[in-house]
What does this fold into?
Amino acid sequence: MADTATKVYEIVVLGGNFGGLGATHYLLRHTIPSLQRTNKGSLFHITLVSPNRQAYFKIGSPRTLVQPNLLPEARLWKPLSEAFAQYPSDQVTVVQAVATGLSSHERTVTVTHRGPDASVASESMIPYDALLIATGTTAPSPLWTLHEDESLTSREFEAVQKALPTAKTILVAGGGPVGIETAGELASAYPSAEITLLSGGSGLLPRVRSKIGARAQSYLQDHFGVNVVHDLRVSSTSAGGPGTGPTEVTLSDGTTRPVDLYIDATGGVPNSQFLPPGWLDVTGRINTRDAHFRVQGDAGDGVYVLGDIVAGSNNTLFDLDAMVPTVCSAVAVDLAALLSPGAQPASRPGLLGIFFGGGGSASGVPAEKEFSPMRDTMLVPMGTGGGVGMVMGWQVPSWFVRMVKSKSYLIDMFDPVVAGSKWGKA
It folds into this structure.
């Protein structure tokens, strides 16, 4: 049996946007240092697998799409290589690839590497002692989530922006925050255009109280004259496309309508195709077996999930921010058990807990950190003047939304996310 002091424990993180970035930084800044303090000579390495070379601030995409003079597209991108240059090169490696398979028995992830020529691909297997899945979801349009090649997103921005000045009729599909924000930005910047928003359900913002959705509808109608339509979905589109002429849209009631510009802002599909079906719920999201986001099914120990791909997640940044320390605390506890068999995890943080990723005890044994997100919180701007929202369940006025999010779409958060400084210690 190999000496544990010479073994390099491999942590694999799948996903290179907010979830994967946050987890990797937290592990490097807190979890690994805490384990190395109590297990002298232990070695750890993180492999971050991402199909993209850059992180994407998708929160700001509605503003950039419609009013790039206020939020240029260049500000939405940050190279992943810069994110981890601050750490020793033998601690973290970024691999540009897509996870395409997994063996929980062999404890390996199969990844596919694609070069400049997308038709040329190669596969490799990465072993793991701990696996964090943060692959998120993929929206139908590359405007809102990355589609492997980030150039697709840039090209879609360019096409829509070119079409907007001459578009007289615009149809936006999607009753969630992105659809509402996009409709609001469009109506604010192009008041002469006829804008229709299809919620796809019985109301807007279906994840929150109906009063908030009703306020969003009133805001769009009263401030901008947006036509909000419920209980209709887009079944198909034909011809057209941004800047290429009218698009014929077929709706779920069988009717058709031509529009100068169609923008799909409907929800995404979980990126879980490479995972065993027994790990997933009916929507394709990953089930967890405890409150610390260990994966259910035959995953075995040392497999975790965070972000939008978690079954039951509210798909908010507030949820994700709370998941990162919780998941990393579970990683710390489980790796500590491998390093020191028989040691019991602390039931709660002790006086020295601040020195340990996810909490700790005076004995140096990591403790699990509870998941405590900011509940019932959402801010939905509609143009630069304000919007609707709630904080901890309390409705907030439009001026609050304007001050917090409408002005800049939270772009100042991006640098600390990519650099990892939002997680403290380095």
In short: Residues 349-362 have pLDDT under 50 and may be disordered.
